[in-house]
Structure formats: C-alpha cells, structure tokens
Design a protein that fits this description.
The chain is an all-alpha fold and about 500 residues long. It is built from 20 helices and three strands.
C-alpha cells in the first residue's frame, strides 16, 4: 500500500531524528570523554553529519512532499497538522542557510570550544580570541541570511532558532520591568540580611559522595537512569534526544550545594525531554517548544524549588546520610538562609535569584553589540568588565570570571541568553499556577512527594510538545501571556516579605 505524502514525510523526519541523536552524542562526548587533541577530527565528523542532515532536510523531494501534504491537509488530524507546520518551519530555516556555512560553522565551533576550555583554565583570552572571532563572523553571516529570509532583524533571527516567536521587543519589555524594581530589591535584601547572619559550611566533600547525594535527589524526582545519565564537565549542560538524555554537572569540593543546584538545573531540562509525547518522539511536533520553556523548567527546579524552605527540610536528612554532617550550620534554617543569600558576584551560574537577571542583561547587551560590530572581539574583556561594573556593581578579577565564564559564544549560541530571561519569568508564572492547582504543594515537598509536581508539568507543558506556539502554550498553562509580574511578585514576597515556613516559596 502506497504511503501518503504526509506519511512519507514522517519517514524522512524519523531518519533526521536519528541524525540528531548521533550529533548529540558526539557533542556530549566532546565535552565529557574526548581527548582534547581530537578536537579538529571531531569538528570534521560533526561537519560531515551536519552537512548530511542539512542535505536531507533541503532535498527537492522533501519540498515536493510538503506541498502535496499541504494540499491534502484537510485529511490530517490536529497533531499531524501541527507536525506538518513544524516540518515546514524547520525546512524553511535550513533552506535559508547554505550547507557550506553549516559545515564551516561546525568546524570552527568544535575548535573554539576546546580553545575556550584551555583559555579559561589558563586565564588567557588571547588563546581563545581568534577562534571566537571566527565563530562571530560566521554567526553574523548566518544571522544576515536568516533575517533576510524571514524579514527579521539579524538578532531576532538568531533568537527565533532557540525560541520560536520570541523577539527582542519581548525581552526589552521584560528587562524594563525588572530594571525598575530589581536594583532596589537587591539593595533592600542585602541590607535586611545584615540582621540575619549565616553560618558558613565548612569541610571537604568528596566527588564520589557528592555524586551519590545528587543521584539520590534525581531518583526522588523520578529521573529514569535507564534512559539517562549524569557525568561531569567544565560547564554543566544537557544533551541528547528523548529516550537518551545526558546531563553533566560541575562539582566543588568545598560546597556540595554548587553541584546540586547545577545538576537540578540540568534535571529540569531532562525531565522536560522525558515527558514529551512518546508517540511523536521522532517527529518535530514531539520536540520541546523552544529554549525559553526549556530554561523555565531548569530554573523552576534550580531557583524556585531547590531554594525553598520546604525542599531544605526534606533535603536535610540526605545531607546527614551522605556527608555525616551535624552542627548549627547544618540546621534547616541556616541552610535556607544560605541558599537564599543575596550577594553581588561575577559568576552567572552561582548567582542568586535576585541578581541572576542582571547577568542575563549584561550578556544580552554585549552579544548584540558584538554581532553588530560595535565591539571588536579583542576588546570584549574590557567591554565585559565595564558592563559588569555597571550591571553587577563589581569588576571581575580576571577574564575566566568575566567574558570567558560561559561556553555559549564559543559554541555559536548567540541569541540564546534571552531564553534565560524569558525562562525565569515563565518559571514564576508556572509556579503560581501550580500552587493554585496543587493546594498542598508545600507539604508534599517536605515529604519528598515530587510526583504530583512533575505530573502537573507533564499535563500542562511536557505532553504538548510543539503542538502549540510558545505564547499559546504559556497562556493555556498559566492563564497569562509572558510578563514580569509573577516573577517580581514571587521575588518580592520571598526576599522582602514576612515569610514563614508555611508561606515560603516552594
């Protein structure tokens, strides 16, 4: 029996999905297992697969099948119609970018990632600068082509690849709202903390014990270790496809919470992937709805759940079990104050909830100026330090704490940082809606009953995949469009309100 044009397209995308999985594993291996001297070879491998993927996606056969399937769209159900829309969107983006550019970008990124690691370890920006320059130039070319094809500004064309529908105007509106209130809240929170001293935790915490501790928390969240794994890398990340998700963390021998929070950020990404509709796992409609929603899941766990008083109450026995700790510094009240301590710092991944958005604003401004040619790559360290002084109230001690702390630009992820800002706002909106629907959420968290929380997320978000546009999915889940109101309300209550154990954010 002959397959319909739409059914043939599903077979084509099933093959493309296999390529995505192979590319994901090569990228994961490059960061976790690969010898550093193999970077150039890995770049060739990635370029070959990226080029083949692009060739399959832009083949004339696919264009013909898309047109025929569209002509018979009335015969498709809602999921199939949404899948066809996503297929065409992916192909249109691929057509706008030549295979030669895809190949060159894959090669320079593979080398830039290794040089970033070397330069960051030695605090020598000069080692990284020429490779970053190569990446920036190719990303500029890509942005110009995509912008022309979709009638978008070059920067919005890059952001569109990470979060469909997200525009600079949306981010500018969010940042204006944050900027009106956050600086005041930060000053007030720091001042209020002076009357609530925190006892520092001391000691050395073996990596093996930290991994066992983190693994216990992951198991409690329902992380399926038969379809995922935890490793270590220089910069925590999540890679893979639904059914095979790899996450990494970075451990600090003096602070077990650093590795825990980094891991939970990545677990948020992973749980989203595991919760996507299984029936559509190898089709575009079965994928996540973009990085803003991805980051909302990561920040919901890392920032909101894991820094709640209720979570700390549940976590306290696990700390004693794995690290045999005791004393007043390990009491739940002190640990909660430690996890909610507001302080100005250089490192984004270590930032508290109140100062986190300032880090994103810093990068958002710099990457736009870098792509637009207002800042030369060689001048990036000084431009970063000036921006940090203005946004964060301090100057980094070195470039490893400054412009080389993130891997995003090394791997060409320009336009990604707005997803963090939108993600933080979405996380707060989801949190409000979740608390409204699960009335005993706090008590469940104290008992370590996390299944209802993830079931709610699965119902409201995960199970829809890319069936709906980002904005529509958010309104369905929370009843409201993207905005800063819920985030500011949450932060105000938690850091400046009269918070009791029963009303602290969970």
């Amino acid at each position: 029996m002959a397959h319909s044009p739409y059914e043939q397209l599903e077979q084509e995308w099933k093959r493309l999905h296999a390529f995505r999985g192979a590319l994901a594993l090569l990228r994961w291996d490059a960061a976790v297992m690969m010898p550093r001297g193999s970077a150039e070879l890995r770049g060739e491998q990635l370029a070959a697969l990226e080029t083949e993927y692009h060739t399959l996606l832009t083949a004339p056969k696919v264009a013909r099948l898309l047109d025929r399937a569209q002509a018979n769209a009335s015969a498709l159900d809602e999921w199939q119609t949404a899948n066809l829309h996503e297929m065409r969107r992916q192909r249109d983006h691929a057509i706008a970018t030549p295979a030669s550019l895809i190949s060159r970008l894959a090669k320079v990124i593979a080398l830039a990632e290794v040089r970033w690691f070397e330069a960051r370890s030695s605090n020598n920006f000069a080692v990284f600068a020429p490779h970053l320059q190569d990446v920036v130039q190719l990303v500029r070319d890509k942005a110009a082509l995509l912008g022309q094809a979709f009638n978008l500004s070059p920067y919005d064309a890059l952001a569109e690849e990470f979060t469909p529908g997200l525009r600079s105007a949306d981010i500018d509106t969010l940042f204006k709202a944050y900027q009106r209130r956050l600086p005041i809240m930060i000053r007030e929170a720091i001042a209020a903390q002076e009357s609530r001293p925190v006892l520092p935790i001391q000691g050395r915490f073996a990596p093996s014990k930290q991994r066992a501790f983190i693994t216990d928390v992951m198991k409690s969240f329902g992380f399926p270790f038969d379809r995922g794994r935890l490793d270590e890398s220089n910069h925590p990340f999540t890679e893979g496809v639904p059914g095979d998700v790899r996450i990494t963390t970075r451990l600090d021998g003096a602070n077990p919470f650093s590795g825990l929070l980094a891991s939970m950020h990545e677990v948020g990404h992973a749980m989203y992937s595991f919760g996507l509709p299984a029936a559509w796992h190898n089709q575009p409609v079965g994928q996540d709805r973009g990085m803003a929603l991805e980051e909302s899941q990561a920040l919901l766990l890392e920032m909101i759940l894991c820094r709640s008083r209720e979570f700390v109450l549940w976590l306290r026995p696990l700390l004693e079990k794995h690290f045999a700790v005791s004393g007043p510094e390990w009491e739940a009240d002190n640990l909660y104050r430690l996890l909610t301590r507001v302080q100005r710092g250089s490192i984004r991944v270590d930032a508290d909830e109140l100062t986190y958005t300032s880090h994103i604003m810093l990068r958002y401004d710099l990457e736009q100026r870098l792509l637009g040619g207002e800042i030369a790559v060689r001048d990036l360290p000084e431009a970063w330090n000036d921006a940090a002084e203005r946004r964060l109230g301090l100057r980094p001690q070195n470039d490893a704490e400054g412009c080389m702390q993130d891997i995003h630009w090394a791997v060409g992820a320009f336009g990604y940082f707005p997803s963090y800002a939108a993600g933080a706002a979405i996380a707060a909106q989801l949190h409000e809606a979740m608390r409204r629907d699960i009335t005993d959420l706090d008590a469940q968290v104290v008992r370590g009953e996390f299944k209802p929380l993830f079931e709610w997320l699965r119902t409201q978000l995960y199970s829809h995949g890319s069936r709906y546009p980002t904005g529509e999915l958010l309104v369905q889940a929370t009843g409201k469009p993207l905005g800063a109101t819920a985030a500011l309300r949450y932060l105000e209550h938690k850091y400046l309100g009269e918070i009791t154990p029963s009303s602290a954010a969970a």
